[in-house]
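Deliverable D2.4 — example input (structure tokens):
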């Protein structure tokens, strides 16, 4: 027969409400009384019901993750499993659970997330990709729910964890220019994502710094989903032209791998005839041939920082409004035009 809260109260000689307050760590109960009750609970094998405890405290100890993409695409992108791993590690250590919100439209995602928060099935939200004029962010601000954004929100100061995509993209394109490639194209990125806009702006900034005009037809190759197939098709479009570029900056490594395959299909030598740089330093970037030069962002750490920031917000702890996690270049064979044979 299981031990009840009534049994514990009788054993210690206090009221049922006192035991209930000890379970929720109510500050109105003295420490000696808490110690006696907890000792009796441990001795008697009483385990508070987690659901009842969360209802008393108005907490679910659950974090909602807004995926910002359709289910069939989200988990196929290496960024998402990695950042969720970082969030999960910190959340588990703080006894929080995760709940994924993934839908086919912005409106559906917004409605589902708000329903979780209003019904107290989640205590806060981590939004995994900031979008232009995002209805979910607007709703979260309006209703004052705790949330953190991975990325940034233009024109609005909100809690966010980001890497400087503009500076990192400029660094990547500058590396190509330093290697002697002057005709550089930019491939990929859904145009409604802030990260796409920032990386494209970084591409433009690097060219402008060297006095190189931007070829708009080389800066408008859009891949709405980050798949190798999309990168391959974009590569064929660019590299089949008579005045093809000498280098490609792809907005993530999966797209870059697709461009590399298209170059191989067309008989174009990488890096001698074509330089390629990706972004994110996904595991595949080290395994393909030639190995891919890329921008390494510390995705796992970003997830940890976002989880910590959100849990602090939920608990009323003062936290910085934004965190920028540094990025770095990882130079491999796909862009090293200056390397002589045997080096």
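Example output (designed residues):
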């Amino acid at each position: 027969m299981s031990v009840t809260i009534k049994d514990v109260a009788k054993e210690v000689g206090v009221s049922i409400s006192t035991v209930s307050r000890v379970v929720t760590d109510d500050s109105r109960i003295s420490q000696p009384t808490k110690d006696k009750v907890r000792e009796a609970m441990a001795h008697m094998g009483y385990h508070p019901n987690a659901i009842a405890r969360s209802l008393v405290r108005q907490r679910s100890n659950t974090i909602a993750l807004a995926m910002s993409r359709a289910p069939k695409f989200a988990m196929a992108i290496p960024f998402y499993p990695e950042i969720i791993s970082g969030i999960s590690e910190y959340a588990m250590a703080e006894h929080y659970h995760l709940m994924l919100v993934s839908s086919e439209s912005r409106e559906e995602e917004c409605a589902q997330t708000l329903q979780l928060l209003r019904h107290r099935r989640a205590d806060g939200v981590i939004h995994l990709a900031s979008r232009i004029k995002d209805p979910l962010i607007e709703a979260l601000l309006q209703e004052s729910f705790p949330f953190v954004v991975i990325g940034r929100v233009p024109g609005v100061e909100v809690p966010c964890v980001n890497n400087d995509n503009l500076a990192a993209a400029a660094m990547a394109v500058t590396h190509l220019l330093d290697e002697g490639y002057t005709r550089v194209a930019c491939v990929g990125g859904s145009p409604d994502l802030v990260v796409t806009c920032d990386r494209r702006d970084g591409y433009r900034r690097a060219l402008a710094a060297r006095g190189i005009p931007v070829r708009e037809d080389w800066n408008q190759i859009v891949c709405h989903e980050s798949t190798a197939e999309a990168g391959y098709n974009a590569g064929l479009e660019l590299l089949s032209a008579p005045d093809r570029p000498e280098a490609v900056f792809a907005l993530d490594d999966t797209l870059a791998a697709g461009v590399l395959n298209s170059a191989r299909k067309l008989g174009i030598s990488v890096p001698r005839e074509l330089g390629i740089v990706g972004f994110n330093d996904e595991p595949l970037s080290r395994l393909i041939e030639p190995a891919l030069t890329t921008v390494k962002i510390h995705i796992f750490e970003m997830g940890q920082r976002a989880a910590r920031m959100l849990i602090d917000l939920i608990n009323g702890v003062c936290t910085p409004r934004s965190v920028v996690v540094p990025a770095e270049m990882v130079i491999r064979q796909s862009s090293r035009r200056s390397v002589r044979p045997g080096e």
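The longest strand covers residues 62-66.
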